[in-house]
Amino acid sequence: MNTQSPSGQSPLQSPSPVIVALDYPNKEQALAMAQQLDPAQCRVKVGKELFTASGPLVVDALHQLGFDVFLDLKFHDIPNTCAKAVGAAAELGVWMTNVHASGGRRMMEAARNEIAKKNHQPLLIGVTVLTSMEQQDLADIGLNVDPQLQVKRLAQLTEQSGLDGVVCSAQEVGLIRETCSAEFLTVTPGIRPAGAEQGDQRRILTPEQAQQAGVSYMVIGRPITQAAEPALACQRIVESLRG
Ligand SMILES: O=c1ccn([C@@H]2O[C@H](COP(=O)(O)O)[C@@H](O)[C@H]2O)c(=O)[nH]1
């Protein structure tokens, strides 16, 4: 696994699988949250809302705070455009970035090959089926397939294309472990501690269930960032996983 420090400071190598999704409309709010969190307990994720509003500056600021950053922009375009976008992400020094696996083999291979040219090579993963989607959502877009089967299919394609892992629901990790190599990473949003609001997520598990399923990393947003005491919420989850 790539443990290179994006900040150029001592490598984080956080043993925690938790990645906190900083879904905020501006850099100030995102950094205010990050300052309450501990880089030894979690990594952070910059997604479309925050990056569109703040751009690379927020990534730099999070690196300065000592965090590994997952740049979650889910690129999906023709191979050349996707590869160049992933290359630009690599130059930001991020720890992990991603593309949509449904962009296909040639798109993913182009992205992988672009990263291979860079000095800093982030982990590159493929989004399978969004955790907000269920069978009816797939049917609505003409995919008459069980979500689990589609995840399995896209995970195999992603591994064959030379990427490091996938984004999927923790519910599908067992299936992926049966069909992909042991090193293949599973990054799982749709994590909801017992009693937390499900919101728009559909294929969910609790942090403890996700850990039992064998996930590599779990992405947790609102259950931490919208908690009354976010730092405590994060700490409780991390401790429940250690226990
Ligand atoms: O399939 C996917 C891919 C990405 N996400 C992202 O993860 C977080 C989840 O946030 P919560 O507040 O814990 O629901 C969010 O940034 C999504 O863009 C996902 O949920 N599912």
Structural account:
By secondary structure, the chain is of the alpha/beta class. It has helices spanning 27-34, 48-54, 56-64, 79-91, 105-116, 135-140, 147-160, 173-179, 207-213, 222-225, 230-242; strands at residues 18-21, 43-46, 69-75, 96-100, 123-127, 165-167, 185-188, 217-220. An eight-stranded parallel beta barrel has the order 1-2-3-4-5-6-7-8, surrounded by seven helices. β3 (69-75), α4 and β4 (96-100) form a beta-alpha-beta unit. It is globular. The ligand O=c1ccn([C@@H]2O[C@H](COP(=O)(O)O)[C@@H](O)[C@H]2O)c(=O)[nH]1 binds at residues 21, 23, 47, 127, 130-132, 167, 189-190, 199, 201, 219-223. This is Orotidine 5'-phosphate decarboxylase.
List descriptors.
single chain; 243 residues; alpha/beta; eight-stranded parallel barrel; globular; disordered N terminus; binds the ligand O=c1ccn([C@@H]2O[C@H](COP(=O)(O)O)[C@@H](O)[C@H]2O)c(=O)[nH]1
Number of strands: 8
| Overall helicity | 40-55%
Give a list of the ligands: the ligand O=c1ccn([C@@H]2O[C@H](COP(=O)(O)O)[C@@H](O)[C@H]2O)c(=O)[nH]1
Unreliable spans are: 1-13
Binding site for substrate: 23, 45, 72-81, 131, 192, 201, 221-222
Function: Catalyzes the decarboxylation of orotidine 5'-monophosphate (OMP) to uridine 5'-monophosphate (UMP).
Protein name: Orotidine 5'-phosphate decarboxylase
EC number: 4.1.1.23
Give the helix/strand layout.
Blueprint: E1 18-21, H1 27-34, E2 43-46, H2 48-54, H3 56-64, E3 69-75, H4 79-91, E4 96-100, H5 105-116, E5 123-127, H6 135-140, H7 147-160, E6 165-167, H8 173-179, E7 185-188, H9 207-213, E8 217-220, H10 222-225, H11 230-242
Parallel strand pairs: 1-2, 1-8, 2-3, 3-4, 4-5, 5-6, 6-7, 7-8
Helix pairs in contact: 1-3, 4-5
The structure holds ligand LLZGTKA7.
The ligand O=c1ccn([C@@H]2O[C@H](COP(=O)(O)O)[C@@H](O)[C@H]2O)c(=O)[nH]1 binds next to β8 and α10.
